[in-house]
Request: fold
Amino acid sequence: MRHDKAALVIDLARRMAASAEGLTLGEIERELDVGRRTAERLRDAVIMLFPQTEEVSDPPNKRWRIRGGLSAFEQAPTTEELVELTKAAQGLRASGEPGRAAALEGLERKLKSAMRSTTLNRLAPDLEALVRAETIAVQAGPRPSADEAVLAQIRQAILAGRPLGFIYSRPGAEARRRSVAPCGVMFGRANYLVAADRESGRIQTFRLDRMSAVRAEQGMAPPPADFDLQSFASQSFGIYQDEIEDVVLKVSPDGAAEARAWRWHPTQSLEDQPDGGVVVRFRASGMRELAWHLFTWGRQVQIVAPERLKAVMAGELEAARQALEAARL
Reply:
């Protein structure tokens, strides 16, 4: 228990040192999942152990931060943290994201170069063993593309609040020049720019691998004031955004255990059934991607609602049937 408390104090000190504006007592409660009295005791312990802790007035609150950072001893990463960083970089490189992988690999080198040689020598054998023992499973699907130059232009436009111009090419459609207000980037099976139309304000998505001649333009084009990227991303089952609907799926008893452990959607709720099955409910858009996923469940999942999801599933199955029949001819 004493070790646990000491770990919490060090964790809080790191959080205070990593925050430019500092932490309030309420933020300490939420980030460390502790009560008010515990948060106060942890704050007092940090102030006692780290005299450089500053109290910052932020009416009606007070904040505490540690300027100048912590020592290498207090900031030394654990074996598990370094392993996860290495695996994240390997996963990005294996999925066709060399630019993002290189950024994490550079961070890993900086962390290791800042560590004391005795600490690094102590961690090295375990780190090497775990990296060899764990790997990223390769999943079928499109290889996302995140060209470093494209990402740099997008980030530049977002930070400056400027318009982003590019040529967008889609299969079966004529390439056209677009100018949008960039809101963010969603990384997944394919990588997408999320942007607002400069005239209507409508939020749209654009695949990065279909964008060319990307550049930040002159002028101002901030995203809509009420736009939140995380909320936008959580509306859809996957990337595609269309009408949001109530989804109801009935999972048979033989698939119920797996369904209960599955993260279907941030809005999901699960209802156990008398026969041992489970009913999954959530609100989402992206019926096509959901239909693709449900196909992997076979007979274990029955679509109860919405009707559009049933129609999309039927259409995808018919297209697959026709392709199979054509292959037999």
About this structure: DSSP finds twelve helices and eleven strands in the chain. The chain has a mean pLDDT of 83. The first strand starts at residue 53 and ends at 58.
